[in-house]
Amino acid sequence: MRFFHAALLVSVAAIPLAAHAAPKKSRAQAPAAAPAITVKPLAYTERTLGNGLKVYAIRDTSTATVAVHVWYNVGSKDDPKGRSGFAHMFEHLMFKATRNLVPEQFDRLTEDVGGFNNASTADDYTNYFETVPANHLERLLFAEADRMATLVVEPKSFASERDVVKEELRLRVLAPPYGKLFALYFPEISYTTHPYARPGIGSLDDLQAASIDDVRAFHATYYRPDNAVLVVAGNFDAKQLDAWVDKYFAGIKRPDRSIPRVTVAEPPRTAAVVRTVYEENTPLPAVMISYQIPPDRDADNAPLAVLNTILSGGESSRLYESLVYRDQIAANAGTFLDSKQQTGAFALYAIAAGGKDVAVSETALKAEVARLRTTAVTAAELSEAKNQILTSAIKGRETPDGKASTLAAAVVVDGDPRAADRQLAAIARVTAADVQRVARKYLGDHQAATVRYLPAKPDAKGDTITIAPTVQVAALSAPADITITTPAAESERVAVPAPSAPVQAALPAVSEIRLANGLRVVTVERHDLPLVSAVLTVPGGAAGDSAATAGLANMTAELVTKGTKTRSATQIAREVEALGGSIASGADWDNATLSIGVKADQLDKGMAVMADVARNPAFAQDELDRARAQSIDGINVSLKNPAQLAGYVANRAVFGANAYGNLRGGTVKSLTALTRDQVIASYRAHWRPDGATLVVAGDITPARARALATQYFGNWTGSGNSIAASANGAPPAPRVVVVDLPGAGQAGVVIARPGITRRDPQFYATSLANAVLGVGFSSRLNQEIRIKRGLSYGAGSSLGARLQAAPMTASTQTKNPSAAEVVALVLAELKRLGSEPVPNAELQTRKEVLIGNFSRASETVDGLASLASGYIATGVSLDELKRYPAAIQGIDPAAVQAAAAKYLDPSVASIVVVGDAKLFVDELRKTYPALELIPATALNLDSPALK
How many CA atoms lie within 13 A of 241 on its CB side? Predict the structure, then answer.
């Protein structure tokens, strides 16, 4: 929550985590082709209040929710001199007290009624957004107006949130591999004059230097109605909305002073810049090349968006095909199209494949840029990129939150509510000549700023990358008339309005049939947008892997999309992405899936590819070798991340030699040993129609779904004997394990134990106990660790839903010296759940959290397909889609306490801490003298002993 992010359009060719005939034509007639689909323009109303507040409304009565967005035209570029990261830190403080609201009451008004709230800080804006049941709209408008006008800033909250932001910096920048490259060095090397050069997350020193007076001055200067945009989207009455907006916002005073604006212009880069750095915690070398681009409102951003997608939009993109797939010189390659109000940045990057020289990747990136300048892109590439952008735009408008965000960004970044629709129209008109023209205009060799990011080594002397001394930053001048707001006495507070009558959500229609070959076909109808998601799920999950073959199920699933008898891996990617769609495959613990998402008018073509992939995978040796190398690179990167590594170790500690103790994606050792024969045997055992289910969700009828399933899967037959996963044996004794990762920016803390099966009658009660513990911002773990003590950016817990007893896990990240304290706090909360009943009021809020999360998961077609396939994989009836809310509401405190005592008892839990051990191990040993200390270099994840 309160997540920091830059507003980037990111395309990535990501590191993977870790005898066949073409289908015969069925006698079923192919459905007629649907007409081409376009994106409907956003239908909104707009008005401006007398105090300057711009108000936009998007009415949608098909939903039972409403989204409220307030965007302020102030961001990281406006951070005062000597206060980098200030706008972001201030964003955190906006969730504290106001004159009429107590700290964290926003969470009471949103999360506790089944909604959510969050905020983000970009270079140009800070936005606050909530989605709640529609009958809570007035309450949110009251609260947003109250924090705009009467924010309370006091020492305790200020100090706590400053500590939280420091932990966020450690989590996002200092702990993960490449955190510095993307969060710090990218902006710092991209600008020499404009304050965009300063990283939005700030620095530890600048955060420490900030004062309460700075906060009050910042709020008075920028948080005013004439510097804000209010967008409401969802189910509401238009006249009532206007009345509420007038009631709560119209009376907020517009200050009689101007708003400071950044007017600095970034000069064009006329000579190439190259910097080399050597950094700890860098498993593979990387390179990034940044170029300047015009403001987002510039007409050239349409061809730049198409260029960006051609370079790195999916597995048919140029960077993936050349660097990752064909030449195998990069484990990961991608782009950032970071357009802004003023000069933006476009960057390409590559993380070298294991054993490969990053200089080769740099040369390849430059060659791809040069090719854009010298040779026009093909008509096929142009069409594919436009289709991908179109589908992404439709998906971005599936929910009230997505619609509100699209409109608000257009207003704040471009100054035009119609900008998003106009940009889509402009993209449709882009030609190959336009793409070549902008490549020549903005992506010249002399316009590049390059960072070579290399692993640290003794005596290596690199360059220093920092904010250029020529960057122009203004000090914050405090207004003379700042009003210091204090909380009203309880008797004087204006009460939060009561909710109105609830709006009932429309449940999706679910139907199913079974084909003659045993294939189960499930249709989940959602007709509000022309999107369809199809998921084929089979029972070949990672639980069936042995320790020696860990990763086999996932490798088998991934390889089905890497070539058939009639299509190569590249052809599969090109065909699907040319439709504007996506195709993916992988294995979870109890099942494997193949999914495709397309616009409804492209479903027939998409299903043809999906069926060929599912039925006729070639499993070519070179594809296995390529996927193996990519997976090993991904594992090696993850082993440098304290949180990920702690999760791996905890899994092995909890389950030992049992199947759930393996790494789902495999280890370096197990992946190296996998053979093509094993992959083929795994496929034949699990990818069979008699054990498979095809879920089709979205803008489709059951009759059309049946016709397509019959046409493409009706004559599918299995060719091997199905194999069930072996049952887990007794879990090993709990352990306390410390993995020493010297120089780690944070400590990853995981406390885990065996949990419960998904079909156990106590599953919902246990889920509710887990929600009390660690689901949501208001959960007990987050309250104790983040809100009260500022020891982490966030703390939470999870309960697996599997066929066999899945892990129950509590986890967080914290600065190394506080690791022992955090362990104690987590254990105390686990014990409390089983020893005393949860108060009814608290329990009801957690019920609303679970029901709200469930409802939001079903707002999109991808979410609906995922929910249904997840139920199928764990043997749960699809009737649960309708019964879930009532089932959760029916659980009482006694049931929760009993479930917690049985399934959350920490006495059988293992404790894992991964970090710089010298900073916390002595303190931890006082409580756990028998703890195991294992150097990261000696860790053996293939062995239950871990060494």
Answer: 23
